[in-house]
Every structure is written in structure tokens, then in C-alpha cells.
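Q: Here's a chain of 202 amino acids. Please give me its 3D structure as C-alpha cells.
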Amino acid sequence: MKKGFTLIEILISIVLLLLLISVLYNVLNISKTSQTNIEHFIAQQKEYLFYNLVYLDILNATSKIDILQNDTNLQSILLFQTKNSIHSLYNPYVVYLVKNNKLYRVESNYKLRLPLNLEHRYFFADLIKNSIHRFKVYLSSQKNKVIFFINDKFFEVDTISSTQNRKIVVVQDSSSSSASKSSSKNLSNIQENAMPSLPGSK
């Protein structure tokens, strides 16, 4: 006749099961934290690549930087020619514009005319940022800086191309008090490029 489990054996089994569950929970929690950290790192790298792309475009500009303002939807359009290319073009024409809350960088061998149909095949249209509700660009009064306001952040790029003046783009969150003060200081020294305002985006 088989004997049943004793009370001590049952308690030991319960304790072992609880320990196993605790270990598994910690492993899953560490895995979840690691995944979050990886996603955050990837997002940071994408941000860095975006700002670095804008920085190189402006720094290597070979023409006047035209800024068209559209005050009805808080969007600007940036047009210029640069030596920087991500599609191996020589001195391409570049346009930054927002369409359907997405920021595109358009690159072409030919001078681009607005409005652009992004489905055309004679240029490269790269989606570089999503969820854009504000993309405002200004030229400083001394015309030595281009200042970008993108959603709740702003940054500035020197237009001087001498090696000693090159610097890493510093991005600041305009929601913080210090950034807001800096933003106000910058805005007092900038003026919008004298370009005609655009009608509503197409």
C-alpha cells in the first residue's frame, strides 16, 4: 500500500516551486529591461544619425540656404545645394519638407521645384523622421547659423565650414526651463529668411 506525501514534503515542494517562480520572474524582468535598453539605444542612434545628416548637409552647403515658411501648419521647407550626398550624387540639390506629419529629405541631381510629388522617380525621397507636428527653420541675423525647431526640441548648425569651427550638434529639450531661456535668447537674434510664405501644404 502506497503512502501519501507527508506535510513536510509538501511544504518543501511549495518552497522549491516558489523559488523557481521567483528565479524565472527575475530572468524575465531582466530580459524585459534589456529589451527596453536596446530599444532606447537604437532610438538614440537614429536621433544621432538624423542630426548628423542635417549637420553635414548644412556644413557642406554650396548655395544659398532658402527657407520657405508656412505659418498655417508650423512647417518650414528647406532648399539648398550641398556637397553631402547619401545617394552618391555630385553636389545634389536637397529639400527638407514635411508631408502627412512625416519629415522627408529629398535629394536630386536637378534643381527641385515646389510642390513636390514624392512619388516621382527623378529624385530620392527618404523618410527620416515620423510624427512631426512642428518643423520650423530660421536663419540667424548674422546668417552664420541655421536654427531648427522640431517638435519639442531645437538645435542649431553653424554654416561656417572652417575645420576649427566644426562642432557636434547639441540638442536641447525646449520643455525644460534652461532650454526655454536659451531658445528665447536665440529667437531674439534670428530672422526669418525673406522668402514668400507658402499656401496650404499639398
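Q: Can you summarize the key feature?
A: The chain is about 30% helix and 25% strand.
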